[in-house]
C-alpha cells in the first residue's frame, strides 16, 4: 500500500535539502574563456557575472567589436557550465530522497 505520510516526510526532507543546496549556490563560480583565453568571464551560482578579464591587446579601438563578441561568448560559456554545475549540485542534494520515477528529475526542477 502507498504510504502517503512517508512520502510527505520525504518531500519535506527534500525541500530542506534543496533549500540548503540553493543557499550554497552563490559560492559556486565558473569561468568561460573565448578567443583562446584572451577573454575570461566568471559567473557565480546566482547566475551573476562577477568578473571579466581580458588581454590588454584587445584595448585597441579597432578591436572593440571583437572584444564585445568575445565577452558575450565567454559569458555564455560560463553560464552554460554553471547550469551544468547547479544541476549536478541539486541532483546530489536530492539523491535518494524521492522514489525513482521515470522523467522526474528534482535537480532540474529547482536549478
UniProtKB/TrEMBL annotation:
GO (cellular component) term, any one: cytosol
UniProt keyword DNA-binding, yes or no: yes
Record's subcellular location: Cytoplasm, Nucleoid
Alphabetized Gene3D superfamilies for the sequence: Nucleoid-associated protein YbaB-like domain
GO MF entries: DNA binding
Pfam families documented for this protein: YbaB_DNA_bd
Keywords: Coiled coil, Cytoplasm, DNA-binding
Transport among keywords: no
Coiled coil: 4-31
Oligomeric form and interacting partners: Homodimer.
Family of this protein: Belongs to the YbaB/EbfC family.
HAMAP family per UniProt: DNA_YbaB_EbfC (MF_00274)
Described function: Binds to DNA and alters its conformation. May be involved in regulation of gene expression, nucleoid organization and DNA protection.
Database matches in NCBIfam families: DNA_YbaB_EbfC
Protein name as annotated: Nucleoid-associated protein ESW18_09165
Organism annotation: Algoriphagus ratkowskyi
